[in-house]
Amino acid sequence: MSEVVAVQDLGHVAPPERRAPVQRRGRERVEAILDAAESVIGEVGLEAATTNAIAERAGASVGSVYHFFRNKDAIVDALLERYLEQVLAVMQSSRRLAEPWVPLEELFEGMVAAFLALDETQPAYFAVCRATSTVTGGRADVALEMNRHMEAMVVELLRTRNPGMPVEDAHVHAALSVTAVHAVLDHLQSLPIESRPPIKAALVAMMVRYFEPVEAPYRR
Hints:
With 220 residues, the protein is mostly helical. It has helices at residues 24-44, 51-58, 62-68, 72-94, 104-121, 125-131, 141-161, 167-188, 196-215.
């Protein structure tokens, strides 16, 4: 998937994947590299995206890219860190915790729409998440952190909507729903635009049918 930097001496600790810039100019250069990486990955996919192409898109030398990022994996991890903040903001705004009575269909329509809007503004989001998914054998710690945060927010949503739901049950339902929704939305991006609305509607209907019996014992 990416360039691999060999560590010749296994008795020494490998250098850090990413060098954090201190000066403003360095921070701006890092952001430009990440913007370029997202653009290139969104156009050609993660496998085909190279550090050379990313450097060219950023208007930087390859050496400048390697100054801040040890390899392409480090760039991907940095993109995931960006996405973590954005995904948590999407989840926070779409859960509607202040309206625990909102119908399931309306709730899931809002959540799905929010994630699709995220993909429109961040074209590499699903490609990067797919490559680092724990389900497909990914290795990024930040991807694990993203899943943990998303599941925790769904647990809070379920227990707010359904007082008395055991936390163990909420965790099971949260893990399943986060995995299922993310997988379907990821698949959606590989389809022609005209064929997406029916699948989006089917995803919402599927989640409603799943959660109706889950919430039934706790209805007020």
